[in-house]
Amino acid sequence: MSALEEAIERPEAVRSFAARSPLHGLDRHTVGFADVLAQSVAAIAPAAASAMAVLMVADLAGGATVLVMALATIITFLVARTINQFTRRFAASGSLYTYAARGLGTTAGLATGAAIVVGYAFISVFALLGGAHYATMLVTRLWPQLPATPIALGALVIEAAVLAIVLVRGIRLSSRVALVVELVSVALILLLLIVLLVQIGPIHPAAIFSPEDVSVAGVAGGAVLAITAFVGFESSATLGVEARSPLKNIPRAIVWSVGVAGVFYLIAGYTQIAGADAIGGTTSVALLDELASRFGLSAWAAVADVGIATSGLACAIASTTALTRIVFALARDGVAPTELGRTHRRHRTPVGAIAVAAPPITLIPIAVVAAGVSPWDAMKAVLLISASGYIVAYVLVCIAAPLFLRRIGEVTAGSVIVAVSAAAALTGCLTVYLAAEATAGNPGVWLTVGIAVIAAALIRWRRRSPIGEVGRYDEPVAAHVLGGVARSGSAGDGSAGDGSSSANGGEPGDADG
């Protein structure tokens, strides 16, 4: 018998591993790169964002819309590079919350967790409203006599049902459904954009930049809205436990999703601005539809509306998927109630978090539309709240990264420059944007302030009680190590006698199922 064969047959005992990961219960290491990429792409929802975000950016940035989209791409790429300082080193379900806790400590970690929960929750509401908005436009185009509000409510109810089913059934179903929907939607819109570009004709320099209606406040506000077209790119990091080769696949998914979305947005932005210039301007809230109608492509616009509506649903699925993983991580760290860390015995999904997160996300847009508010008007306030949550979380993680790298002895000048540049740009743009929107009377500003006050009060209250280790991540367990023997009494390992200490055994199911 060779030395290798003898080591396998009679491995030396290794006692430094836990019986279970702190994040046990999820379907560990089963999700491939395509599913991880699908999570980030669907959360970004480039099909829906190309139609909705570009129009909102144009309202603020004016003639600098395309350049602002390019600026947002650069800033988002810097943030992605910084987040990947963490994703290349450990896998976690808590994503940005876990990263900030590792770099800045408990209080900053909780603040980041609160901010990203707000970001994911309200972007899900925004996406459901967007899906209902485009579904309503599609139906009323075919049957103009039908009232808009009942159609929007019906669309929201259908979206809510699909969202709940897919979330419980598991990440592989949700990511694949979202990826197929998004790919088809992007293909439909890209074809429409290409045809419109041909119809519009030669390049319009004024569509790339025109000094008309350009201001510092408009550029900063437009940059914030443009960045919201990318938010969710980091959501694949919430699959750190469930992904195969997470330290390789998640960083790739994050960078690829930002790069592809950035190119797509630049094409969409230029096409819509040049098209609006070609037809002499417009005040439409569905610019792609109007351009298609003006250039004799009404039937294609109807098909694109289907793509945009379903893209909104895919975004809601992906964003809520990420949200539930964050809530799950908070519960496993002892920050949130333990019940929220419960997982499904069969599907191995965080059903405790789903049961708390899904109802308000689906009921809020239904209540708003039932109250007589149009989906488009509601989307403007909701987007501001979501953007504020995301950007605050991004800023805190960018501050945390250099400190984390210094602590582990791997800080470089380049990583510091990238992180500080991203944090400064995000902070400046958000400050100017919120000031401008407050002056304009956007109710989302005061809702954001109210949510921030509530979050701060909850964090202060929670800090009065002892909190264990915050920001825990997935760790190798005894069952996955040759000769592994679970240490007894270790935090987060469950019971030592759960049968997982065999070197050849698989990871046990979740006892909390």
Compact summary:
With 513 residues, the chain is mostly helical. Helix content is 68%, strand content 1%.
Describe this structure in words.
With 513 residues, the protein is mostly helical. 68% of the residues lie in helices and 1% in strands. It contains 17 helices and 2 strands. Strands 1-2 form a two-stranded parallel sheet. Helix 3 (46-61) packs across helix 13 (298-332) and helix 7 (148-169) crosses helix 8 (171-200). The longest helix is centred in the N-terminal third of the chain and has 37 residues, at 106-142. It is globular, with a radius of gyration of 24 Å. 56% of the residues are buried.
Strand and helix layout:
Layout: H1 3-9, E1 14-17, H2 33-44, H3 46-61, H4 65-87, H5 96-104, H6 106-142, H7 148-169, H8 171-200, H9 205-208, H10 216-228, H11 246-278, H12 287-294, H13 298-332, H14 351-370, H15 375-407, H16 413-440, H17 443-463, E2 484-486
Parallel strand pairs: 1-2
